[in-house]
Amino acid sequence: MSNIIKNVKLRNPGETEFHQAVEEVYETVEKVIEKNEKYQKAKIFERITEPERLIYFRVNWVDDKGEVHVNRGYRVQMNSAIGPYKGGLRFHPSVNASILKFLAFEQIFKNALTGLPMGGGKGGADFDPKGKSDAEIMRFCQGFMGELSKHIGNRLDVPAGDIGVGGREIGYLFGAYKKMRNEFTGVLTGKGIGWGGSLIRSEATGYGLVYFAQNMLAENKDSLQGKTCLVSGSGNVAQYAMKKILILGGKPVTASDSSGYIYDESGIDAEKLEFIMDLKNNRRGRISEYTDKYPSAVFTPSDRSAESNPLWAHPADCAFPCATQNEIDVNDAHNLVKGGVKLLAEGANMPTTSPAITILLENNVLYAPGKASNAGGVATSGLEMVQNYSGIYWTRDEVDTKLKDIMKDIHDTCLKAAKEFGMEGNYQAGANIAGFQKVADAMLAQGVI
Ligand code: NDP
Q: Distance from the CA of 50 to the CA of which of 150, 200, 217, 285 falls in 20 to 30 A?
């Protein structure tokens, strides 16, 4: 193990997700650092793995029964070499410094790949929005923003949504910021249309993911037409990934949440997807309810002690993990290969463990890392920022065309960088190298700060 990685582990004890993300990037950019003495001398990798700032705060709030709760809020301002910090907020009980540092670290390279001037950041709280009333969510968001508002700004740090933070939460957070700071600025992205939001932002991560996969298939003279697709998650990313898969002639057959997954062999068509969207976005129900409405589908409850997740064992052509980190491990990767999967594109951040990625690559599965394939969300957030700065708003088609172009550019950039360093066709290496070089060069130019 290199001294750099040893040091990261020593300096960040117990932060396994952060170690995993750093190691994964280091393994592919090591060659680039070795070739470039300036990067070594300026200690670029050592600096890029240390957050510029990590803000950690208490959030108190009162539930509907009058009981007081205490949660932890965070903002990791990881790197601002190429622009203001940018990255989502996650509300989930698992949130801790390790998870947010891994996400903020990934975000640096992802944002660089979009070609837009955005630095890397991430934040959130160990608050669980599940089962909470709208009034409770609002009070939590107001408490959270009470502290966060001191550290963000439309030219400084512009958060967005992530797991557990959707349109409702962004609305409450934006309202709280506006009231506290007495200003109406684009301090958050993912805002509603009509109060500063961009068309296509809700769809962007899922649509962008499928555009990326479409580019990978086109590179191999293939398309999504008629392809059976395994999708995990049933939130924002999964919903719009399924929508775009359907538009492009594919057939999604699975969807999940933390309680389990549904398998619908006949395919989740547009009407069934509408049902899922209403269930998740309006009624805030569980995915198991799908089988009440469509009894031919099968619901399998999740079993965390199992050695593999049966969702990934169904026969299919493509896989789109869109739930959370480390949802595909070694056994799942073997099952995907056995089931005939030829392409895996990550909608979630780091859903595939490193040994599982190795298995996919060894078996010639086309593999797209999240920092490239799910970058459409943050790219469209970047477009929302541009629209907020200029006061000029684009049509749906204009934003969608820009999103498509950005995903094609990221795709081509990954292939070009991989080829340059002798790893032709390796999207993982290409994404890491291209993202790293862009940020490293900006850091060099700006001196030791
Ligand atoms: P949502 O909160 O809308 O949906 C998350 C989905 O994943 C839900 O179905 C949820 O189920 C499931 N899920 C969450 N945690 C777990 C878990 N520990 N085990 C099993 N299932 C889980 O989030 P998004 O769709 O926005 O985000 C999904 C992934 O995509 C995340 O990795 C996020 O970082 C990534 N991403 C999101 C972007 C965006 O624009 N929103 C941009 C780029 C990446 P349940 O409801 O039961 O919790």
A: 150
For residues 100 and 44, membership in a common domain is answered with yes
13 and 149 belong to one structural domain: yes
Whether the predicted pLDDT of 148 surpasses 80: yes
Q: Are residues 226 and 299 in the same domain?
A: yes
Query: Which residues does residue 86 pair with via DSSP β-bridges, in sequence order?
Result: 120, 158
In short, whether 100's Cβ falls inside 6 Å of ligand 1 is no
Residue 127, pLDDT score: 98
Domain count, the chain: 2
Claim to verify: residue 275 and residue 167 sit in the same structural domain? no
Which of these is catalytic: 86, 122, 342, 371? 122
- pLDDT at position 188 is 98
Q: Using CA atoms, how far apart are residues 243 and 272, in angstroms rounded to an integer?
A: 11
19 lies in the same domain as 166: yes
How far is the centre of ligand 1, averaged over its atoms, from the C-alpha of 95 (Å)?
Answer: 13
- The answer to whether the CB of 161 is under 6 A from ligand 1 is yes
Give me the mean pLDDT over the 272-296 stretch. Answer: 97
- What is the per-residue pLDDT across 257-279, written as a single tens digit (0 to 9) for each? 999 999 999 999 999 999 999 99
What sections of 149-295 are H helices per DSSP? 167-181, 201-219, 236-247, 270-277, 290-293
For residue 224, give the CATH number of its domain.
3.40.50.720
Tens digits of residue pLDDT in 385-425 = 999 999 999 999 999 999 999 999 999 999 999 999 999 99
Q: Residue 153: what are its φ and ψ, rounded to 5°? A: 180, 160
Q: Which domain holds residue 236?
A: 203-373
Can you tell me the distance from the alpha carbon of 266 to that of 244, in angstroms, rounded to the nearest whole number?
18
Kindly report the protein residue whose alpha carbon is nearest to atom 17 of ligand 1: 258
Same domain, 8 and 142: yes
Q: What is the mean pLDDT of residues 178-189?
A: 97
- Domain end (from 373, 398, 433): 373
Active site includes 122?
A: yes
